[in-house]
């Protein structure tokens, strides 16, 4: 596997587009101090992903920074590869390039692109990345590439043309399925949303709010059907059953146990996404339950 120097097996997933970058760096430093091994974030029209990665890597010492994911429709394959190599040259083992095909509504409306044949589009994109000459950042190790892989064909591609998969909004059983398909020599970095509260009504409210956008996207609908949910779960915001399947709810011990289910299922690293505007209070409470220091 391509090198990733995680200092622990649990990291953080947090899209901080509405925060100033200086405030994000301050929080990233505390996330690192708490013992979390990484900070991943999304790209859906907010901050530019490589600029943010450079700021976070420069502002921390050991924290792995990952794009979860960089939208391949936002930049050319050559730009992605050369930018990733530069970050890897500056911070060996600490940058992970997560790539994804995104979703048809976003691609067609925000990027004025075509969403036809996403699998072949991703395959061609990776081939073009591989063709970037070695003279670009000579001697630098190429950073690990992970694909946003939910369906069987994209999971397969993440094993044959990349270094592994970054599953998002999945059960531990899906993590186990991904590990089985990829074998032992590829990275599996799974995301897990959490609502740290023993108030079930409050937890469900947060979970439904979180799922509101995703529940209207065909990629996630199809993924959940493959994960043994059914059409009755695909209401806007998701059913209660879907919400409880996608979001770990409860006290710190209960949430930590759910995170460990992904690790036991074969994840190399699990990203905790706190469903609060500021994730730090919950991350502070969770760290001891997760065995971090």
Automatic annotation (TrEMBL):
- InterPro entries for this protein: F420-G6PD/mer (IPR050564), Lucif-like_OxRdatse_MSMEG_4141 (IPR019922), Luciferase-like_dom (IPR011251), Luciferase-like_sf (IPR036661)
Report the superkingdom from the record. Bacteria
Can you give the residue ranges of the Luciferase-like domain?
Answer: 20-269
Q: Membrane-spanning regions, if any?
A: none
Q: Which terms does the record give in the GO molecular function aspect?
A: oxidoreductase activity, acting on paired donors, with incorporation or reduction of molecular oxygen
PANTHER family the UniProt entry points to: CONSERVED HYPOTHETICAL ALANINE AND PROLINE-RICH PROTEIN, PTHR43244
Its recorded name reads Probable F420-dependent oxidoreductase, MSMEG_4141 family
* Record organism: Actinopolyspora mzabensis
């Amino acid at each position: 596997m391509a090198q990733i120097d995680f200092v622990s097996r649990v990291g953080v997933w947090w899209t901080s587009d509405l925060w100033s970058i200086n405030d994000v760096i301050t929080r990233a430093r505390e996330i690192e101090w708490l013992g979390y091994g990484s900070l991943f974030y999304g790209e859906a029209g907010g901050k530019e992903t490589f600029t943010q990665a450079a700021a976070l890597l420069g502002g921390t010492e050991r924290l792995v920074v990952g794009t979860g994911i960089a939208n391949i429709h936002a930049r050319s394959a050559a730009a992605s590869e050369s930018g990733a190599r530069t970050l890897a040259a500056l911070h060996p083992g600490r940058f992970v390039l997560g790539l994804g095909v995104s979703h048809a509504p976003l691609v067609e409306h925000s990027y004025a692109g075509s969403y036809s044949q996403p699998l072949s589009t991703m395959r061609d994109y990776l081939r073009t990345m591989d063709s970037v000459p070695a003279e670009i950042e000579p001697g630098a190790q190429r950073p690990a590439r992970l694909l946003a892989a939910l369906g069987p064909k994209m999971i397969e591609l993440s094993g044959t043309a990349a270094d592994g998969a970054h599953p998002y909004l999945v059960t531990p059983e899906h993590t186990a399925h991904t590990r089985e398909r990829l074998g032992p020599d590829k990275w599996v970095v799974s995301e897990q949303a959490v609502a740290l509260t023993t108030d079930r009504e409050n937890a469900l409210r947060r979970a439904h709010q979180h799922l509101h956008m995703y529940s209207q996207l065909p990629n996630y609908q199809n993924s959940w059907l493959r994960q043994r949910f059914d059409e009755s779960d695909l209401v806007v915001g998701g059913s209660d059953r879907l919400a409880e399947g996608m979001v770990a709810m409860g006290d710190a011990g209960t949430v930590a146990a759910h995170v460990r289910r992904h690790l036991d299922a074969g994840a190399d690293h699990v990203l905790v996404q706190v469903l609060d505007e500021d994730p730090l209070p919950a991350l502070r409470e969770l760290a001891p339950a997760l065995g971090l220091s």
